[in-house]
């Protein structure tokens, strides 16, 4: 019998933990440092890839994703070295997707061709907003014009381009967002990630919000209105959501992220990176040292950047499969849930009430359930 | 035994913060009763809560030896009485056990309502009273004005008041001398008569068992004696006898006029009653001391553990506290909202707070306290009368003839500027004005008020409308019929028993609306909309609707988030288990805690 992860595929995540400046809303593992020894980092990332390669053995790799931090601060030769190691380690799918997250500045756009030559097939641009005032409030270093220019270059250089927008920002009304989203959809874009601004603890926004700052953030009702407008407009433009916050033309779905949502396996290298690996029938959660220095030290001195490796129980796996899978319009294969020994009773009850639907051997959230998916999950997951 | 003429027994009457404990400390210190190195603040207040709040809950006593200017050494026995209206009966017994009082008034503040209540208790006990003006060293002190105020309001001569600073020690020798020269010795006392002693108070000591504070009237208390409590009928053998200095010091006997302690293998404080008469089992006195009253709880509320698994711990804590407090009553209560807990009776709001604080602090149990309720007299059509301690037990209104509620006489002293607000507050709370006079320059307001309005949030409101400048005291005056109804709160059409309350019909709608609005804020949105209603009988008097949840989804959830989101979900599931379920509605604990808070 095929192992469960194969239903989700196999990908590699590479974390580049450095940024030019920390964005006030971002709770990702990112660090601002003066100079980075790119060769040394390339060697360490390569060493980690080889280590995972030995553990997984030869399996077909479907995607590589450079995330961060700001991976567009990597030199093209660093990216090339990593991808070279990838080619030596795993057999690749014919349509291997290689995504790199990039800031839409002119400097970074200047490296796009280099990335393409190294093997990158897709970029995801952190555009975030289409007006300068909003960009300034989000602490971004680029202007709206610069972002449009970078997008144009990316379109010319790469097969596939996606960009991110953050909405439900301070003082953003429904009409403001309608105009902005309309402008975004008018660009020749095949994939869009549309995130509602979330105030995370441990960020600058989190601190300001806790101190009573950040006035004008939408309340729940306005956030819901903004969500509804988003669903309507993207569907009308042929870019309906395939995941809670992700929209694509049918042929442009991001394979790499699908690995996460479909509970596939992913090796993860770089500081703070989280992976999931099924080895000898046991699924493991791996996590690397978060601090760049500590991670580097681990790789160079002890031969591993991993801090912890935790076996996942059937219950953990079930929770993750529902938590991740119901974010997808396609939902989760019931057969996989069955194999993990789930109790379908709560799901049936929720289906009865119109929150979930069983269809074609799959369990999926209904349109009314999506904006309140966390509440549905609280009813659904075991424990 | 000491010659009666060389004994002075006294208490100190003062408002909170006017310096009672500091003065007591100074008296003890100046007479060398405690070595300098053992001095600590508020020597007599034993409990943390007493020290922290500056209040006295249990009576304490200390024996001071004072070599007076006349060349004789006197025995001064100070009884530090509880100072709060909740303990009015205990105060009256302590007052009966001594012959005089020091009336301590802050020379910068003047007389407060609480001082009045206690000074009247002293006057009722026929005390000689020596006024003492404290904090005389402060620039804001106005001794002349305060002297006048004391004469005006209390009607005692204040011309020879002692002027002191308990903090610096200024004037303390004068106070000691005044105790000896101006307070009377014990009025009578016959060493040969049958034993007659007053049980002033008692407390539990983990090593000694119950320690009883006694004042001997006639006869002699001795070690080994077999004694009898005349009210409870209990008989015991005295195994220790002594005095507080303020540490315990054993003595051979206590004779007429003396104050001290005994231990007698008494297991629980509950077996002793404040105000009871102690005599010998054989050949004892026939006539008990007058004035004994059993203490009766007047305010009730439910105490529930926040974590329902702590119910047995709560039972244990309550039983232990009850052993040490005869005035505190409890019985088990089950609430659909709050699970298992106890319906507890208290002497008043302070007593309630003290017990609740002690459970939370000493036993480490987090509590939900339901809205305090008074005892209603429900007269049935059948002629039967039921004492209603819990609104949940209210009988069907169709078989009720009428309901009576307890009323109090409230005495409020308030600066002129806030008089209008205070009068309005009293009127709003269904008060009937009895008096409006001036205590010197300050208005003195006396109102007849329903106790249930007072336990709700009266004191907090009073503090807030007067910016803390009013002082307030009350006494129970009896029961009166009024138009009272039980108001229920329904969440998603299910009654939430813990939120039921008795209210006056005219105030029901306002109270109901406030409660519904508050709950709408406190209950999180669910996946469906939830009606929140206040109802009397079947009739809805207020209604709010909590909209259905519209937006709760994580924006970003990728490979690096799976672990964190899974753990978050597990945590939320665990949190959900701690919520109270009403039909399909989960109500968080905090919602009950906030809704039941007495801030209206």
TrEMBL record, chain A:
<comment type="function">
    <text>Probably acts as a heme chaperone, transferring heme to an unknown acceptor. Binds one molecule of heme per monomer, possibly covalently. Binds 1 [4Fe-4S] cluster. The cluster is coordinated with 3 cysteines and an exchangeable S-adenosyl-L-methionine.</text>
</comment>
<dbReference type="InterPro" id="IPR006638">
    <property type="entry name" value="Elp3/MiaA/NifB-like_rSAM"/>
</dbReference>
<dbReference type="Pfam" id="PF04055">
    <property type="entry name" value="Radical_SAM"/>
</dbReference>
<dbReference type="InterPro" id="IPR010723">
    <property type="entry name" value="HemN_C"/>
</dbReference>
<feature type="domain" description="Radical SAM core">
    <location>
        <begin position="4"/>
        <end position="240"/>
    </location>
</feature>
<dbReference type="Pfam" id="PF06969">
    <property type="entry name" value="HemN_C"/>
</dbReference>
<keyword id="KW-0408">Iron</keyword>
<dbReference type="InterPro" id="IPR004559">
    <property type="entry name" value="HemW-like"/>
</dbReference>
<dbReference type="GO" id="GO:0004109">
    <property type="term" value="F:coproporphyrinogen oxidase activity"/>
</dbReference>
<keyword id="KW-0004">4Fe-4S</keyword>
<dbReference type="InterPro" id="IPR007197">
    <property type="entry name" value="rSAM"/>
</dbReference>
<keyword id="KW-0143">Chaperone</keyword>
<keyword id="KW-0349">Heme</keyword>
<dbReference type="GO" id="GO:0005737">
    <property type="term" value="C:cytoplasm"/>
</dbReference>
<dbReference type="InterPro" id="IPR058240">
    <property type="entry name" value="rSAM_sf"/>
</dbReference>
<dbReference type="GO" id="GO:0006779">
    <property type="term" value="P:porphyrin-containing compound biosynthetic process"/>
</dbReference>
<dbReference type="GO" id="GO:0051539">
    <property type="term" value="F:4 iron, 4 sulfur cluster binding"/>
</dbReference>
<dbReference type="GO" id="GO:0046872">
    <property type="term" value="F:metal ion binding"/>
</dbReference>
<keyword id="KW-0963">Cytoplasm</keyword>
<dbReference type="InterPro" id="IPR013785">
    <property type="entry name" value="Aldolase_TIM"/>
</dbReference>
<keyword id="KW-0479">Metal-binding</keyword>
<protein>
    <recommendedName>
        <fullName>Heme chaperone HemW</fullName>
    </recommendedName>
</protein>
TrEMBL record, chain B:
<dbReference type="InterPro" id="IPR038363">
    <property type="entry name" value="LepA_C_sf"/>
</dbReference>
<keyword id="KW-0251">Elongation factor</keyword>
<comment type="similarity">
    <text>Belongs to the GTP-binding elongation factor family. LepA subfamily.</text>
</comment>
<keyword id="KW-0342">GTP-binding</keyword>
<dbReference type="GO" id="GO:0005525">
    <property type="term" value="F:GTP binding"/>
</dbReference>
<protein>
    <recommendedName>
        <fullName>Elongation factor 4</fullName>
        <ecNumber>3.6.5.n1</ecNumber>
    </recommendedName>
</protein>
<keyword id="KW-1003">Cell membrane</keyword>
<comment type="function">
    <text>Required for accurate and efficient protein synthesis under certain stress conditions. May act as a fidelity factor of the translation reaction, by catalyzing a one-codon backward translocation of tRNAs on improperly translocated ribosomes. Back-translocation proceeds from a post-translocation (POST) complex to a pre-translocation (PRE) complex, thus giving elongation factor G a second chance to translocate the tRNAs correctly. Binds to ribosomes in a GTP-dependent manner.</text>
</comment>
<dbReference type="InterPro" id="IPR005225">
    <property type="entry name" value="Small_GTP-bd"/>
</dbReference>
<dbReference type="Pfam" id="PF06421">
    <property type="entry name" value="LepA_C"/>
</dbReference>
<dbReference type="InterPro" id="IPR031157">
    <property type="entry name" value="G_TR_CS"/>
</dbReference>
<dbReference type="GO" id="GO:0045727">
    <property type="term" value="P:positive regulation of translation"/>
</dbReference>
<feature type="binding site">
    <location>
        <begin position="134"/>
        <end position="137"/>
    </location>
    <ligand>
        <name>GTP</name>
    </ligand>
</feature>
<dbReference type="InterPro" id="IPR000640">
    <property type="entry name" value="EFG_V-like"/>
</dbReference>
<dbReference type="InterPro" id="IPR006297">
    <property type="entry name" value="EF-4"/>
</dbReference>
<keyword id="KW-0648">Protein biosynthesis</keyword>
<dbReference type="GO" id="GO:0003746">
    <property type="term" value="F:translation elongation factor activity"/>
</dbReference>
<feature type="domain" description="Tr-type G">
    <location>
        <begin position="5"/>
        <end position="187"/>
    </location>
</feature>
<feature type="binding site">
    <location>
        <begin position="17"/>
        <end position="22"/>
    </location>
    <ligand>
        <name>GTP</name>
    </ligand>
</feature>
<dbReference type="Pfam" id="PF00009">
    <property type="entry name" value="GTP_EFTU"/>
</dbReference>
<keyword id="KW-0378">Hydrolase</keyword>
<dbReference type="InterPro" id="IPR004161">
    <property type="entry name" value="EFTu-like_2"/>
</dbReference>
């Amino acid at each position: 019998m095929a192992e469960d992860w194969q239903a989700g595929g196999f990908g590699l995540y590479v974390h580049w933990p450095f940024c030019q400046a920390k964005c006030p809303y971002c709770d990702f593992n990112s660090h601002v440092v003066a100079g980075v020894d790119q060769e040394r980092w390339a060697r360490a990332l390569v060493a980690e890839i080889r280590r995972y390669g030995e553990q997984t053995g030869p399996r077909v790799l479907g995607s590589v994703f450079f995330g961060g931090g700001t991976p567009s601060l990597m030199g093209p030769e660093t990216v090339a070295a990593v991808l070279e190691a990838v080619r030596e380690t795993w057999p690749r799918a014919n349509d291997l997707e290689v995504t790199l997250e990039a800031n839409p500045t002119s400097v970074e756009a200047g490296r796009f061709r280099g990335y393409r030559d190294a093997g990158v097939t897709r970029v995801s641009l952190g555009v975030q907003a289409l007006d300068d005032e909003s960009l300034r409030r989000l602490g971004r270093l680029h202007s709206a014009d610069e972002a449009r220019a970078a997008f144009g270059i990316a379109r010319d250089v790469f097969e596939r381009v996606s960009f991110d927008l953050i909405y439900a920002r301070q003082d953003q009304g429904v009409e403001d967002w309608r105009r902005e989203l309309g402008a975004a959809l008018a660009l020749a874009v095949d994939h869009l990630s549309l995130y509602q601004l979330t105030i995370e603890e441990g960020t600058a926004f989190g601190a300001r919000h806790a101190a009573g700052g950040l006035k004008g953030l939408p309340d729940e009702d306005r956030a819901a209105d903004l969500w509804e407008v988003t669903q309507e407009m993207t569907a009308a433009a042929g870019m309906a959501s395939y995941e809670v916050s992700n929209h694509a033309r049918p042929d442009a779905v991001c394979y790499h992220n699908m690995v996460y949502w479909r509970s596939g396996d992913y090796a993860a290298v770089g500081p703070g990176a989280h992976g999931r690996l099924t080895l000898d029938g046991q699924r493991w959660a791996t996590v690397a040292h978060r601090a760049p220095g500590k991670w580097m030290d681990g790789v160079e001195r002890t031969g591993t950047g991993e801090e912890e490796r935790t076996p996942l129980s059937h219950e953990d796996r079930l929770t993750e499969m529902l938590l991740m899978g119901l974010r997808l319009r396609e939902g989760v294969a019931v057969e996989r849930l069955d194999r993990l020994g789930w109790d379908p009773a709560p799901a049936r009850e929720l289906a009865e009430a119109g929150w979930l639907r069983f269809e074609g051997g799959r369990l999926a959230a209904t349109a009314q359930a999506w904006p309140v998916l966390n509440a549905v999950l609280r009813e659904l997951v075991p424990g | 035994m000491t010659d009666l003429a060389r004994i002075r027994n006294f208490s100190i009457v003062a408002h909170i913060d006017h310096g009672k404990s500091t003065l007591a400390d100074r008296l003890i210190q100046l007479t060398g009763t405690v070595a300098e190195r053992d001095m600590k603040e508020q020597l007599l207040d034993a409990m943390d809560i007493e020290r922290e709040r500056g209040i006295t809950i249990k009576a304490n006593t200390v024996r001071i030896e004072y070599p007076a200017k006349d060349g004789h050494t006197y025995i001064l026995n100070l009884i530090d009485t509880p100072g709060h209206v909740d303990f009015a009966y205990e105060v009256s017994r302590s007052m009966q056990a001594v012959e005089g009082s020091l009336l301590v008034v802050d020379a910068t503040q003047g007389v407060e309502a609480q001082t009045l209540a206690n000074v009247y208790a002293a006057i009722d006990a026929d005390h000689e009273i020596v006024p003492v003006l404290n904090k005389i060293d402060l620039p804001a002190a106005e001794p002349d004005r305060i002297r006048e105020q004391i004469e005006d309001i209390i009607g005692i001569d204040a011309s020879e008041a002692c002027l002191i600073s308990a903090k610096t020690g200024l004037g303390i020798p004068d106070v000691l001398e005044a105790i000896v020269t101006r307070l009377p010795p014990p009025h009578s006392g016959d060493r040969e008569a049958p034993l007659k002693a007053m049980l002033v108070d008692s407390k539990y000591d983990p090593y000694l068992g119950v320690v009883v504070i006694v004042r001997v009237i006639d006869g002699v208390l001795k070690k080994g004696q077999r004694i009898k409590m005349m009210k409870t009928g209990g008989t015991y053998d005295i195994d220790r006898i002594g005095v507080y200095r303020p540490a315990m010091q054993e003595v051979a006997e206590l004779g007429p006029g003396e104050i001290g302690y005994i231990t007698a293998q008494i297991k629980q404080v509950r077996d002793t009653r404040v105000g009871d008469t102690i005599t010998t089992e054989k050949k004892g006195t026939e006539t008990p001391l007058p004035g004994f009253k059993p203490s009766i709880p007047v305010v009730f509320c439910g105490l529930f553990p926040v974590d329902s698994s702590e119910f047995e711990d709560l039972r244990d804590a309550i039983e232990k506290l009850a052993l040490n407090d005869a005035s505190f009553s409890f019985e088990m209560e089950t609430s659909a909202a709050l699970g298992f807990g106890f319906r507890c009776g208290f002497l008043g709001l302070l007593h309630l707070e003290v017990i609740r604080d002690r459970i939370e602090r000493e036993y480490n149990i987090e509590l939900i306290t339901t809205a305090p309720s008074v005892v209603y007299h429900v007269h049935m059509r059948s002629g039967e009368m039921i004492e209603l301690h819990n609104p949940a037990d209210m009988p069907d209104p169709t078989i009720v003839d009428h309901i009576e509620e307890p009323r109090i006489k409230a005495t409020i002293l308030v600066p002129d500027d806030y008089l209008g607000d205070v009068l309005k507050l009293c009127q709003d709370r269904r008060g009937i004005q009895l008096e409006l006079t001036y205590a010197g320059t300050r208005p003195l307001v006396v109102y007849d008020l329903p106790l249930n309005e007072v336990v709700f949030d009266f004191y907090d409101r009073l503090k807030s409308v007067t910016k803390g400048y009013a002082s307030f005291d009350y006494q129970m005056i009896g029961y009166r019929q009024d138009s009272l109804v039980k108001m229920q709160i329904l969440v998603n059409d299910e009654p939430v028993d813990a939120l039921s309350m008795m209210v006056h019909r005219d105030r029901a709608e306002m109270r109901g609306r406030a409660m519904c609005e508050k709950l709408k804020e406190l209950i999180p949105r669910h996946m469906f909309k939830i009606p929140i209603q206040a109802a009397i009988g079947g009739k809805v008097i207020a209604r709010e609707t909590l909209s259905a949840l519209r937006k709760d989804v994580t924006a970003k959830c990728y490979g690096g988030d799976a672990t964190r989101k899974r753990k978050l979900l597990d945590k939320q599931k665990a949190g959900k288990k701690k919520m109270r379920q009403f039909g399909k509605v989960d109500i968080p604990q905090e919602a009950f805690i906030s809704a039941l808070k007495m801030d209206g």
